[in-house]
Amino acid sequence: MSKMTGCKKSDRHAYPRELVDFIYEQWQNPSFLEKIGGEGDTASLQLPECRQLEQVISICYQASLMREEERPVMFRLIIREPRLFPAEDGPPTGLHRLLFTRPRPFNEYELHRLAPAADFYRTLIGLTIDPVHGTQIWGLVHSGTRWMHSVYGGRKTFPPLPRSLVVYVTGPGQISVCLGEEIIASLNGGDINCPTLDVFNSSWIAHSLAAVRTETWELHQAARARAEKPWALLDPEFGKSVGQQVMRRLISVIRNAGHGGMLVYLPTEMTEEILAENRYMTIKYQFLEYESRQRFRNLTLRIMNTLAEIYGDPEDPHKRVGWLEYVNSKHEAIALLDEAIFDVAHLLAVLAGIDGAVVLTKRQELLGFGGVILGDIDNVGMVAHALDTEGTRTEPVLSEGVGTRHRAAYRLCQKLHDAIAIVISQDKSVQIVKWHNGFVTYWDQVPTGVPGF
């Protein structure tokens, strides 16, 4: 039995064979096929023969253990016939296929040689599995970097990967197998990890932020009523989408900085209490109550207003716009606002490098940094590890096996039930912590083994 984090557990380490066995096991699960959109599309979900897939994963595993001028070997690989890629396409909105005049042998040495030319963030290695000629490398597929925006946070559209098997190698023994952009399973440190949860789409987060989003929406409606020219109608969910992208960007920038950090979100009504002497935490570096403290929130509101304004049409007063128009907009004002949000995310990532937490309200108002959870808050012995997005299925976990940041987040959330803590580790893993259903509960937000996710 393999050792599987969040799926199954044992005392043995897992290797490529166990990873392939787990993938085939998932393929027999109707709920898994439904999750990845397999219903009515079974032809595109065919796996290679078990022996062939095990060979591919095993060779990738061996390549991952090699070094390229003291750097780890990293690459993305796609198993798909080259004829299925349109020859005329290319980034930023398509995939650029480049065929070798002669196929290359598929082995760890060839992968090691190709990896520097197949930059992980821009290019995939093309692979075919043929019953006559065996497994061969046929060329390269240039994707550009926009594919990272779905997880880094951003508004740019990107070319979706086709529904073929994609293998990510991101370090020694770190392998993820995907169907297109959907992660099936990852092997990292001898553990097989199931796809993690996108907690930002949960109903409990939506409920926690409902009052703040209602307030922002009312401010937008008031601005729309004052406008001299007609504005387009804005999708009520647009503000939520922008907020999610802000959060993704902030987390991804902290992760890429490599130092880890902690973000603490508190109810807005606690602002005065938390900035004064209190029994929860001290904030070493506090900010005065000026407009600059609310820049994240103000930028979100300006994006909402600007989008509605530039798409306003006197001849179509009922025109509705939302996320699709935002990501496709080439208007300079939208581009500048999007860049401004990214710059604020970078600022907060730098602040997170200081010991202690960056403290914000749920309104995205920056209160300060260097926040220290006070030691007189009761220790937490057991916490609940959420196994689904809504935290309806959990498993008990001892808190003593984690670092100082995690334990501080657990203590805070046990005392402040409305607080949300996000802990980013130096190894780039992310936990979201909240008091939920009577327990301190944490969600693993980031899939292991895929950098930037």
Protein described:
Residues 1-6, 39-43 and 447-453 have low confidence and may be disordered. The chain is α+β, with helices and mostly antiparallel strands and 453 residues long. It contains 13 helices and 22 strands. The strands form four sheets. The chain has a nine-stranded mixed β-sheet with strand order 1-11-10-9-8-4-6-7-5, with helices on one face. The chain folds into two domains: 4-193, no CATH class; 199-444, YojJ-like (1 (3-Layer(aba) Sandwich), CATH 3.40.1700.10. 32% of the residues lie in helices and 26% in strands. A hairpin with a 2-residue loop joins β8 and β9 (174-179). The chain has helices spanning 16-27, 30-35, 50-64, 108-114, 149-152, 203-208, 210-226, 238-257, 271-275, 295-310, 323-328, 332-351, 404-415; strands at residues 4-5, 67-68, 71-72, 75-79, 96-105, 123-130, 134-142, 165-171, 174-179, 182-188, 191-193, 233-234, 261-266, 281-286, 320-321, 357-361, 366-373, 382-386, 394-398, 420-424, 430-436, 439-444. This is DNA integrity scanning protein DisA nucleotide-binding domain protein. Pfam families: DACNV. Residues 268-447 form the DAC domain.
Task: For this entry, give a set of tags.
453 residues; alpha+beta; YojJ-like (1; 2 domains; nine-stranded mixed β-sheet; 13 helices; disordered N terminus; disordered C terminus; DACNV; DNA integrity scanning protein DisA nucleotide-binding domain protein; DNA_integrity_DisA_N_sf; DNA_integrity_scan_DisA_N
